[in-house]
Design goal:
Belongs to the short-chain dehydrogenases/reductases (SDR) family. This is Short-chain dehydrogenase. There is one protein chain. By secondary structure, the chain is α/β, with parallel strands linked by helices. About 50% of the residues lie in helices and about 15% in strands. The protein is built from 10 helices and 7 strands. The protein has a 7-stranded parallel β-sheet with strand order 3-2-1-4-5-6-7, sandwiched between helices.
Length: about 270
């Protein structure tokens, strides 16, 4: 099958307004998929939509929504209930706060937990079921190198990204045999507008137009993800991170997942839900 036949006719990209999310939306459109563009800023999404439709001659649907709200998943599913979704990218959940845990109201952490974990689970449960029934499709869950270890200023964020990584690994174990590709895409330093803004606010760059030296580009991240889409469950989308983690973790995440899957099958038996 062609890419569009295997993963179409529609994709959902959460976080499609800029950075890696926008690069995903544009790249999937260039491969023939119609794209649901999801983020908070409607005006920005409308610009992305116009650009994609003009350049790639596919359909788009704009949904402006804050995924941190309690009913976000239900409202989104109502908006796309008439579409056949074959590709799901969850690229929402960056931490623009970057402050000590106790210096912000608890609601800030709770909101991040809901958006990065609860909504991801709810959407995955809804969207992956039909994919498994059809025997084709893909889900890409954006993680972060912060998920490998806790550190200051990212207490809740790092914890949610650890959840996202393990969730992607486990989902891959269950859905790969059913023909659905799941990829936990772990970002390192990536030259996005959000990172440029954060660095400028902290005096680490002279303007928000200044590229982040040594960081990967959003397009590199997307191209790398699609090149490893069928390999799963984890891909480190940063060259320096791939090298560095070899010293910290002699065994890759994918190797460990394979061992855990075999051990689980030996102890608990194979999946009985066919």
């Amino acid at each position: 099958m062609s890419f569009a036949e295997q993963y179409g006719p529609w994709a959902i990209v959460a976080g499609a307004s800029d950075g890696v999310g926008r690069a995903f939306a544009e790249t999937l459109a260039s491969r023939g998929l119609n794209v649901v563009l999801l983020a908070r800023r409607r005006e920005t999404l409308n610009d992305v939509s116009s650009s994609i439709e003009r350049q790639y001659k596919v359909q788009t649907r704009v949904i402006a929504m804050d995924l941190a709200t309690t009913d976000a998943a239900a409202r989104l599913m109502a908006e796309v209930n008439d579409l056949e979704i074959g590709f799901f990218v969850y690229c929402a959940g960056a931490d623009s706060n970057f402050k000590p845990f106790l210096s912000s109201p608890l609601e800030v952490a709770e909101s991040m937990l809901h958006r990065n974990c609860n909504v991801l689970m709810q959407l995955s449960h809804h969207l992956c079921g039909p994919m498994a029934t059809r025997g084709r499709g893909a889900t890409v869950i954006l993680g972060s190198g912060a998920g490998f270890s806790g550190t200051q200023n990212m207490v809740a964020y790092a914890a949610t990204k650890a959840f996202d990584m393990v969730f992607a690994e486990a989902l891959w174990c269950e859905l790969k045999p059913k023909g659905v590709n799941v990829l936990g895409l772990i970002l390192g330093e990536t030259d996005t507008p959000s990172l440029r803004k954060l660095r400028y606010e902290r005096g680490l760059s002279k303007s928000t137009d200044e590229p982040v030296k040594g960081a990967e580009t959003p397009q590199y991240v997307v191209d790398d993800a699609l090149a490893h889409l069928e390999k799963g469950p984890i891909r480190l989308a940063n060259k320096m991170m791939r090298v560095g983690l070899r010293f910290l973790y002699p065994f890759s995440r994918n190797f460990v997942v394979g061992l855990m899957a075999k051990a689980s099958e030996k102890i608990m038996g194979k999946d009985i839900a066919q």
